[in-house]
């Protein structure tokens, strides 16, 4: 793929996000690369739609209608994206800081980077065995070729961790993941997945890797809890 043919689509999902939506939009529009920005609003009842409307001429698509949650919104956006694009999805309040260098797009199926979680913590996404047990990738710094999964990728039964399920399925198919240290985003603290739901995470592991790996995952979670307590 030649550099000039690189297409990037960013999907923002929002519901009643008047406090943060403008920062998220501007973090995308301020990038130096050409980007198709899609915003899926869940029929907000505050000033969110009014704020988004100011940027309508700069958006690839904008939909405001009731949905079934953030992953339903992401699925809608995914289906609207061009088939040859790399897709990144943000929640309201998240911010894109820096996109990968062009050469990474020519080599990768999926590009992953780093995510700022707070003033003192940067999450360094990783690919490897641990992804079979827990989510070692943050969606705010993850670009996936739409051609790898042309239709809705998120299983809505996993209302908290459908992105983890998708990441595992991508990993199982041996697609080419490439890390870029320059690729950086910010994740707004909190959100629906702020408190860890062990049962849903284990259900995903069992679905994708079987009962044995779900047992390994329980041990992994216990060790992580112990590590956090000792820190």
UniProtKB/TrEMBL annotation:
Keywords, comma-separated and alphabetical: Glycosyltransferase, Transferase
One GO MF term: glycosyltransferase activity
Protein name, per record: Glycosyltransferase
Keyword DNA-binding among record annotations: no
Group of enzyme by EC: transferase
Domain Glycosyltransferase 2-like: 9-90
EC number, as in UniProt: 2.4.-.-
